[in-house]
Amino acid sequence: MAPRTGYRTSVNAPTDHSIAPTDQDRSDTSQTGGSPAVRAEALTKAFDADPVVIDLDFEITDGSIVGLIGPSGCGKTTTVRLLAGLLAPTSGTAEVHGTTSTELSASQRSNIGYLPQAPALFPDLSLLENLHFHASMYGMPFRRKGHLRTLLDWVELDDDRGKRVSEVSGGMKRRLALAAAFVHAPRLVFLDEPTAGIDPILRDKFWQEFRMLGDDGRTLVVTTQYMGEAAYCDYVGLLSDGELLMLDTPDNLRRAAFDGEVIDITLTRPASDAELAQISALPIVVGSAERISHDVVRIVVDDAGRALADLSAPMERIGLEVEEAAEHIVNYDEAFVRVVERHRELRNSGDDRTGTD
């Protein structure tokens, strides 16, 4: 499924503390010919005949932030390595701006950043020296200290820049590796669980910067186990057992959990089974009404705002009085669990549909 375009209506200028480079720091951006930033077609990878990634099909447009979300072992890391050209697929194709990812030239790779789960850092070098080394690998000019200090400040390591890598914690190493992924100002960045082990406040700070980079026209592909990080993304790719269950907006991920929007209705008395069936038959209700406590009924509708405005009269005709009604905001953990469970049920029943668009 190709993500839709046209979701961004404005471009935010980077602040003075942004890690976005000045024009002279930017890597050269060659013409892409209008091709997607990233494209996968029937992308499959197996290790010793054991499939890890299965028939992935999607496109990612320039300037998108795409989160690949799922539990450990679902294929997120393998997918990113295939897209970045670090692994050759067993079958299918992965492309970056129209070029097969395993055939990217040195010039094309200079516009790509990558944060692996186990980054390469030199333990006997200081944090700043490590960044200098990564900058040299990409041919950055020697007048770069200010840019490197900005990166270290972003990951809250500038005060520790003189410490050796061997002297700092695992979390600090992770933050240094994140800074290194952006050292050459890439236009396309693959980040494999960049916020793993990071405290919530710093995690939010990173995502605010990722959003700014997206507004600057960068493309970010970010894997995470934190379902709540879906809210920061333009599009969410839901992975389970090596399969891409859906690629859509965060709002549509929530809708996919119940195939609509959810309303919880508190009644002045419990509804009988017959009355529950009548609620299910109402034109505004999608599917079946569900009793979630003795006096609370949950329904799924196409439009929660419209349904809330029109709810009282049909309930009164059934003989029920509404004490309170409110939209139930589905959280991303709940959405993930429901979509995955439904997919597995359909697969086990012999129907390979996910139940989502």
Give an account of the 3D structure.
- The protein is α/β, with parallel strands linked by helices.
- Helix content is 30%, strand content 24%.
- The protein has 11 helices and 14 strands.
- It has helices at 76-83, 106-109, 127-137, 145-154, 170-181, 200-215, 250-258, 273-280, 304-309, 312-318, 332-348, and strands at residues 38-47, 50-60, 65-69, 91-96, 99-100, 112-115, 188-192, 219-224, 235-240, 243-248, 261-267, 290-293, 296-301, 322-328.
- A hairpin with a 2-residue loop joins strand 9 and strand 10.
- Helix 3 packs across helix 4 (145-154) and helix 7 (250-258) crosses helix 11.
Task: Give me a quick take on this structure.
The chain is of the alpha/beta class.
The 3D shape can be described as: elongated
**Terminal CA distance:** 9 Å
Helix content: 25-40%
Uncertain segments: 1-18, 21-33
Topology:
Layout: E1 38-47, E2 50-60, E3 65-69, H1 76-83, E4 91-96, E5 99-100, H2 106-109, E6 112-115, H3 127-137, H4 145-154, H5 170-181, E7 188-192, H6 200-215, E8 219-224, E9 235-240, E10 243-248, H7 250-258, E11 261-267, H8 273-280, E12 290-293, E13 296-301, H9 304-309, H10 312-318, E14 322-328, H11 332-348
Parallel strand pairs: 3-8, 3-9, 6-7, 7-8
Antiparallel strand pairs: 1-2, 1-4, 4-5, 9-10, 11-13, 11-14, 12-13
